[in-house]
Design a protein that fits this description.
The complex is a heterodimer of chains A (140) and B (120). Chain A is α+β, with helices and mostly antiparallel strands. Chain A is built from 4 helices and 5 strands. Chain A is globular and about 50 Å long. Chain B has a single domain, classed as STAS domain (Transcription Regulator spoIIAA, 2-Layer Sandwich). In chain B, 42% of the residues lie in helices and 24% in strands. In chain B, strand 4, helix 3 and strand 5 form a beta-alpha-beta unit. The N and C termini of chain B lie far apart (40 Å). Classes of the chains: A alpha+beta (140), B alpha/beta (120).
């Protein structure tokens, strides 16, 4: 059985740091044989998870990437922050029609993560929020 | 400069068409710049705006929300917001949001300009 290829980043809270996590997804994924289109979607999901950690979380942001290439390849991502935590079930799903009329047009990050990835699991409590996401390579 | 460096070129074309050629990462700062230039074009009488995203690989959700402000302004004047040359992931992002219901999306700039410059 092949061991997964791993990358671990500890990111400081500074502007554009989310792109470093996105770049790591691309570098690891290409090496592991994922398509650029798949990686572009994973990259955006990881950027969104990091942005949430930057905006609502606290402390350094830990990003762990694992490329599993034993059998059908899949990518596993964990983004951890140390902020106050939140209840993911309390985040409303955005609707474009109502967003167009609303003062606040934001609130798409979680929805994008859920729709771009195959699995998204959020475990959050005061002091630690972990977003774990999985994306499988599709097609040949 | 990296592929994610933001650049914006604004072009006022004949008639009511304004074009914004965007390169790089569309985040809050880039989204605000686009929204500002779009507002300027709308106030200058342009009812149709085309955003060419050929050199944009990623739009984050904050950038998207700022594009929604542009869309809201365009809808208020019964104008048209169009996009062209979208990457596969940006196409999917727009599809997830349902943007194709409210905007026009073209495969490339030439197709967009032909369609948008024609008689209304």
């Amino acid at each position: 059985m092949l061991e997964p290829q791993l990358v671990r980043l500890v990111l400081p809270r500074r502007p554009h740091v989310e792109l470093e996590a996105g770049q790591a997804v691309e570098t690891l994924g290409l090496k592991a044989g994922f398509s650029r289109d798949t990686l572009a979607e994973v990259r955006l999901a990881v950027v969104e998870a990091c942005l949430n950690a930057l905006e609502y979380g606290g402390g350094e942001i830990e990003v762990e990437l694992a490329a599993h290439t034993d059998g059908s390849p899949w990518l596993e991502v964990r983004v951890v922050d140390h902020g106050p935590g939140f209840d993911p079930d309390s985040v409303p799903r955005p609707q474009l029609r109502s967003k167009l009329r609303a003062e606040r047009k934001r609130g798409w990050g979680l929805e994008l993560m859920r729709r771009l990835m195959d699995e998204v699991e959020i475990n959050s409590r005061p002091g630690r929020t972990q977003v774990r996401m999985i994306r499988r390579q599709r097609g040949g | 400069m990296t592929v994610d460096t933001f650049e914006l070129r604004v072009e006022s074309r004949d008639g009511s068409l304004g074009m914004l050629e965007v390169a790089g990462y569309i985040n809050n700062e880039a989204g605000e710049a686009i929204a500002r230039e779009a507002r300027r074009l709308i106030e200058g009488g342009h009812h149709t705006l085309l955003l060419d995203l050929a050199a944009t690989r990623i739009i984050n959700s904050i950038g998207i929300s700022l594009l929604l402000e542009v869309l809201e302004q365009i809808l208020e004047i019964k104008g048209t917001l169009a996009f062209c040359s979208l990457s596969a992931s940006i196409t999917k992002t727009f599809q997830i949001m349902g943007l194709s219901q409210y905007t026009r999306i073209f495969p490339d700039r030439a197709t967009a300009l032909t369609a948008l410059s024609g008689p209304a």
